[in-house]
Structures are given as C-alpha cells and as structure tokens.
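fyi for ur records
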Amino acid sequence: MKEERVLTLDNYEYGVVVNALNELRNDLIKDDKPTDAVDELLLKAIDAPTRKQKRRSYNEAR
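which gave:
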C-alpha cells in the first residue's frame, strides 16, 4: 500500500529543497555512488504542481 504525503512550501523553502537534493546528487556522483533514489525525488520535487490560491469573487458576499 502506497502512502502519500503532501508538503506545502513557499518559494524560498522549495528552492532550499531542490538545491539540497542537487548538492546531494553531486556528492554521490563525486563518490561514484548510485543516484537513482535522489534523481527520482529531485524530479518529483521539480515537477510538483503548485496549488492555486483561492480568491474571493468581486460579487461574493462578505
């Protein structure tokens, strides 16, 4: 059974995660170790959809 988790990140946090994964990948390449798991996770992070914020309609009652 596959368990799914959702992270909500702002633009700064998203950049930190992508950079950290990329640095880890570079270190693994330098040490001649497999990067398969990090590659998959990095691609998931890069391709993750953004959530659109809900906005009030102009005519919506307050």
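The mean pLDDT is 89. thats all i got for now
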